[in-house]
Every structure is written in structure tokens, then in C-alpha cells.
């Protein structure tokens, strides 16, 4: 029996719940049959009565409902049944990129680029609709049996326009430490470039088998996102073509303005993924990916063509004389102390919180979209450090507070794009 649904498991006289596929802090996901249209779907049920959770649930429906793209998990329906909110989504037969990496280790560079192009294409579609995902990571990208990547879990996404601002608590930074953009770590508003940085972190991990930064604590990882240069992927895994290694570093530029757009990244990665590339001519062969379990048989990678757009030439040389987004004093000293104080009060920013189990070796499993597996922590919500003692509370909740910048100045107000 599903609480709030009934013994028969029939939701809204239409969706027959069958198997529970996963659960998280806010809800649980079921495989279901749409009796009206005769198709399998994923149904996400809200499990709490908290008003804030209900608002976030509605936001997820609104953000995903704006999008119609082959690289974004589709949203079909939203409603309430006996006082319990539910979402009906596309059901993806496959697993997450986190499970893929856990199963296979580092991926072939051309394959990683092709998958990255699909994720970038989905992000570009979201950005054109004014939607910022804010938690791009391997666990939030589904991979179907035909190798189509689909972005899932818009539960903490935000609209870029002011009309939807303020639904997340003021003074909170939400996200996952391993994939958090520097500006987000400093408490600044999310922007499309923040998603691009997170995509760079994902590609870095797919190519090397590890995120760009590692540390003993999530706070140590966050500090490195702000002021530490990532090691070139080609240095960690000899044989990765230098051109691809350089482009990943381009995605990981500290300054948002110095990163490519998601559209540009989709174009570049798709072109790279279609053309075979030999390892660097230094006599070093590309090490094989570490395999922890037999890999399932899958069709060849399929990369959807990017949306029609004006052709552009993308250079991935790093701009000269760029201002570094450093805050060593703030994050390493007072800022870090304030982050640590927040953590001591019971908040935590997750680092590598996704420890996926490998999918079955025999055949793809049916994995629900837009929900963590049972026991998987949801993205952390961490009070950001206040830039000045005279802090005022914004009624519309449209800003994030973070440590001071390198000049000792607070970031002030930011409206309409983030917490």
C-alpha cells in the first residue's frame, strides 16, 4: 500500500503504481502504468507536508514543464491526489552517468565528449527557457540503453527571471561540492555559466575517473573550486588528446564570463565526438579504463544533432589577463571559518555524496528519473557566510550570501536568479 494512494495503488484514477524505484528526502519514485495512454511512466510522490517542500516540488514541475528536448527527462503531468502532490515523468530504461563511471572507470575520450555534447545540448535548451539547473552532476544525468543522455532532477533548479525568484531559503547555497562553480561557492547567484562549469567537472571525472578537486572535507573541495587551478586531465591520464584536455580547462575557467556557453560547448564536443582522435604522439598509449564489473552490452553511442542555430567559431584558448576569481583570504580564513561554523550548526555541503552501485551486467535496469536512489543524500543546503555584520533579511529571498571577495567587499544584493 502506498500512503495516500490506497491499497490498489491507483493514482488519480489513471496511474497504476507498480514498483518503487527509489526514494529521497522529499519523495519517492515509482514505476507506473499510464492506463489512459498505455505507456510506462515514472511517478514521483511528495512524502512530506512541509510548505517549503511543496513549493520546491511545484517548482520542479514548472521548470521541467518548460522544457521539451531529447536530452532532458520529459515532464508529463502534475497534480494532487488525496492531498499528496505527484509528478509524472518520462521513464528511462538505463542508469545514471555516476553508475556508468562506477562500472567502467574512466571513459574513452571520444565517447565522453559525445555524451558531454548531449548534456550540453540539454542545458542549452534549459538556458534558452530561462532555467538554470544548479546541480549538474553524474547522478543527475540518465543514460538510456541506446546511449542517449538525459538531464534529470530539476528539484533545485531556478528560473533566471525575477518572477520565480525567492522560492529557496535566503542565505542558502545549494548544490554538490564536487561540481560547484566558484561563483556559487562564494554565495553569488547561479547563472547559465555555473551549469557549464559543473558540466566541465562531470567531463573531467568521466575522462580521468575523479572530480577535478578532492579534499578531506566538502569545505576543502569548495575552497579549491574558488582558488586552485585544476590539474590538466591529460596529466592525470596520459594519452588524453591535448585539445580535449585544454577544452575541459576552458569549461572550468574561474570567471563565468570566460567560459563558453552551453550551445558553444555542445557544438564543440559534438564535433569532437564524431571524429576519431589518436592519442598524443609521445609514445604513451591511452591507459584502459578501470573496469570494476563486466560492462553491459549496449548499442553504439548516439549523439543527437544540436538544435538549429547560427554556426560559430569557438576558440578554447584561455583569455589573457583575466581576473582570477580568488578569495584566498576570505575562504581560507574568515570565510572558511564562517562556512565551518555553519556546518557545526548542522548544515553540510555534500562532496561525492553519490556512491552508485553498478547496474546489472546482463541487461539495463529500469531506473527512475529525477530522484536519488534509496539512501542517497539530496543536494545539501548550506548557509553561506555573511559578507558583513550589518546583514538585512530580504523578504523576497532572492539572494545568496557568501564570503567577501579578495578586496574585502561584500557581494551586496543580487536579484532574480538565485537564492
TrEMBL record:
Residues 279-324, 350-419 are annotated as: Disordered. CDD domains: STKc_PknB_like. Residues 15-269 form the Protein kinase domain. It comes from the Bacteria. Pfam families: Pkinase (PF00069). Residues 315-324, 406-419 have a biased composition (Basic residues). ATP binds at residue 44. InterPro entries: Kinase-like_dom_sf (IPR011009), Prot_kinase_dom (IPR000719), Protein_kinase_ATP_BS (IPR017441), Ser/Thr_kinase_AS (IPR008271). One of its GO terms (molecular function) is ATP binding. Residues 284-303, 363-389 have a biased composition (Low complexity). Its EC number is 2.7.11.1. It is an enzyme of class 2 (transferase). Keywords: ATP-binding, Kinase, Nucleotide-binding, Serine/threonine-protein kinase, Transferase. This is non-specific serine/threonine protein kinase. It comes from Streptomyces corchorusii.
Amino acid at each position: 500500500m502506498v500512503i495516500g494512494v490506497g491499497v490498489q495503488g491507483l493514482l488519480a484514477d489513471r496511474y497504476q503504481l507498480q514498483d518503487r524505484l527509489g526514494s529521497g528526502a522529499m519523495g519517492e519514485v515509482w514505476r507506473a502504468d499510464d492506463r489512459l495512454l498505455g505507456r510506462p511512466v515514472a511517478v514521483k510522490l511528495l512524502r512530506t507536508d512541509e510548505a517549503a517542500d511543496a513549493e520546491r516540488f511545484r517548482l520542479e514541475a514548472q521548470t521541467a514543464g518548460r522544457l521539451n528536448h531529447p536530452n532532458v527527462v520529459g515532464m508529463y503531468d502534475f497534480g494532487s491526489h488525496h492531498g499528496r502532490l505527484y509528478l509524472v515523468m518520462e521513464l528511462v530504461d538505463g542508469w545514471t552517468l555516476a553508475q556508468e563511471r562506477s562500472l567502467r572507470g574512466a571513459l574513452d575520450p571520444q565517447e565522453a565528449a559525445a555524451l558531454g555534447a548531449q548534456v550540453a545540448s540539454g542545458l542549452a535548451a534549459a538556458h534558452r527557457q530561462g532555467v538554470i539547473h544548479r546541480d549538474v552532476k553524474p547522478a543527475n544525468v540518465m543514460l538510456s540503453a541506446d546511449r542517449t543522455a538525459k538531464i534529470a532532477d530539476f528539484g533545485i533548479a531556478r528560473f533566471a527571471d525575477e518572477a520565480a525568484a525567492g522560492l529557496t531559503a535566503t542565505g542558502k547555497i545549494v548544490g554538490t561540492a564536487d561540481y560547484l562553480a566558484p561563483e556559487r561557492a562564494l554565495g553569488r547567484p547561479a547563472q547559465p555559466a555555473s551549469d557549464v562549469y559543473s558540466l566541465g567537472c562531470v567531463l573531467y571525472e568521466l575522462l580521468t575517473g575523479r572530480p577535478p578537486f578532492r579534499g578531506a572535507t566538502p569545505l576543502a573541495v569548495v575552497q579549491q573550486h574558488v582558488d586552485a587551478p585544476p590539474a590538466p586531465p591529460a596529466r592525470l591520464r596520459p594519452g588524453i588528446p591535448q585539445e580535449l584536455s585544454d577544452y575541459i580547462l576552458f569549461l572550468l575557467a574561474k570567471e563565468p564570463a570566460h567560459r563558453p556557453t552551453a550551445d558553444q560547448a555542445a557544438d564543440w564536443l559534438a564535433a569532437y565526438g564524431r571524429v576519431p582522435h589518436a592519442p598524443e604522439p609521445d609514445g604513451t598509449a591511452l591507459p584502459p579504463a578501470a573496469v570494476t564489473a563486466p560492462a553491459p552490452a549496449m548499442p553504439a553511442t548516439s549523439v543527437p544533432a544540436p538544435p538549429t542555430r547560427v554556426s560559430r567559431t569557438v576558440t578554447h584558448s584561455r583569455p589573457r589577463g583575466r581576473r582570477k576569481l580568488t578569495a584566498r583570504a576570505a575562504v581560507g580564513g574568515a570565510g572558511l571559518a564562517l562556512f565551518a561554523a555553519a556546518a557545526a550548526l548542522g548544515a553540510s555541503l555534500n562532496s561525492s555524496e553519490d556512491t552508485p552501485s553498478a547496474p546489472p551486467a546482463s541487461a539495463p535496469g529500469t531506473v527512475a528519473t529525477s530522484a536519488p536512489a534509496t539512501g542517497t543524500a539530496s543536494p545539501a543546503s548550506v548557509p553561506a557566510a555573511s559578507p558583513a555584520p550589518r546583514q538585512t533579511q530580504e523578504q523576497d529571498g532572492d539572494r545568496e550570501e557568501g564570503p567577501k571577495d579578495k578586496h574585502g567587499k561584500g557581494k551586496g544584493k543580487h536579484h532574480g536568479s538565485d537564492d
